[in-house]
Design a protein that fits this description.
Order of helices and strands: EEHEEEHEHEHEHEHEHHEHEEEEHEE
Number of domains: 2
CATH topology of the largest domain: TIM Barrel
Largest sheet: 11 strands, mixed
CATH architecture of the largest domain: Alpha-Beta Barrel
Radius of gyration: 23 Å
Number of helices: 10
CATH superfamily of the largest domain: Aldolase class I
Helix content: 25-40%
Low-confidence stretches: none
CATH class of the largest domain: Alpha Beta
């Protein structure tokens, strides 16, 4: 086991889906907030949990036929693949297949798609349909169900995917170490990788998680989850040395994956990207009367925020005539502002 440059722990190698994710090159396609299980530890926010809405990264999609919105997000975010997640994508199987098919048709076979599947709704027929457009499948087993029942569903995937593209992804529960070990021991013939995520609490699960676990000072990660994951990697290595295992930390998601994704976003003219992936630009409020007086090719009309973005060279010339602001914001679709300073 080794610690990676992106604050995670690895035994073996990363899957292709994870390699793209770490680079910030995976778009998260949130198919639905509806779920078949209702886990008490679910980290989803109030905006998404149990709500049948589609999101492409931070962008709320109008409806399941609004392919142009999803395709635009792929292009502006520089994605080379996407994850299909929720909720439970299998609850909206036709939608999931339709969206994934459109992405493959638009960006080609090399556009890598991985899917998170709760075992509850898994059937042979569903996996057969999904295998035509999903490159990598990651199962979420239910540790409250009989192991044999769960393994039987995971084993079905070998009929449709190569073993290297089949895996299990779970939160890293410090109180389920023995159960996880036993489960993986029986799953090894059917999977090539195990991804364990640092356990986190969310808006809905905060009360439950704070009663059951000790929460770290950051207010959302669970104490001992990383230690439990590192211990599991060592123990599982004893009986499955060829199994690829990755312990994905909250730090990886929030500081490496997310920052790299921000850096991949395309920028509009006259914006400068920071080392953290945010963008900085100078702007003034839109004025139809003032627009013709600006030098051509030295401004950009930001229709989304009803602003005129200025070439930096114009700032000193115009600051006594106009209200000009230095703005730092995230380049994502919602363009949340970090700082606004009047010049």
């Amino acid at each position: 086991m080794k610690k990676t440059p992106y604050a995670s722990y690895l035994s073996g190698s990363l899957t292709k889906g994870c390699k793209l994710c770490v680079k910030g090159q995976k778009m998260v396609l949130f198919v639905t907030g509806l779920c078949s299980r209702g886990c008490e530890f679910c980290p989803l926010s109030k905006m998404r949990k149990s709500i049948d809405k589609i999101y492409a990264n931070e962008r709320k999609i109008s409806n399941e036929n609004a392919y142009d919105e999803i395709i635009e997000e792929v292009k502006i975010s520089g994605a080379k693949g996407c994850s299909l997640t929720g909720g439970d994508p299998l609850l909206k199987l036709n939608r999931t297949i339709k969206l994934a098919t459109k992405l493959k048709q638009t960006f080609g076979k090399k556009f890598h798609i991985h899917l998170y599947a709760s075992t509850k709704l898994v059937t042979r027929l569903k996996l057969k349909k999904l295998s035509k457009i999903v490159d990598e499948i990651r199962f979420h087993p239910d540790f409250e169900k009989p192991i044999e029942q769960e393994i039987k569903k995971i084993a079905l995937a070998k009929e449709f995917w190569k073993k290297k593209n089949i895996g299990i992804e779970i939160p890293c529960f410090s109180d389920k170490i023995k159960k996880i070990q036993e489960f993986i021991k029986q799953a090894v013939p059917y999977i090539s990788f195990l991804n364990m995520n640092e356990l986190e609490s969310g808006e809905f699960s905060q009360k439950y998680m704070s009663k059951k676990y000790k929460i770290n000072k950051d207010g959302y990660t669970i104490s001992n989850s990383i230690d439990a994951g590192k211990y599991l990697i060592k123990k599982i290595n004893e009986f499955a040395p060829k199994l690829n295992m990755h312990l994905c930390t909250a730090e990886l998601k929030n500081w490496h994956q997310y920052k790299n994704r921000l850096k991949n976003y395309k920028m509009f003219p006259f914006a400068k990207k920071t080392k953290d992936g945010t963008i900085i630009y100078f702007a003034t409020n839109y004025s139809k009367e003032f627009l013709p007086s600006l030098p051509p090719k030295q401004f950009y009309l930001d229709k989304k925020k009803n602003r005129i973005i200025l070439h930096p060279k114009l700032v000193n010339k115009l600051k006594d005539k106009l209200e000009i602001f230095r703005i730092e914001e995230y380049p994502t679709y919602d363009r949340e502002e970090c700082e606004v300073e009047k010049i």
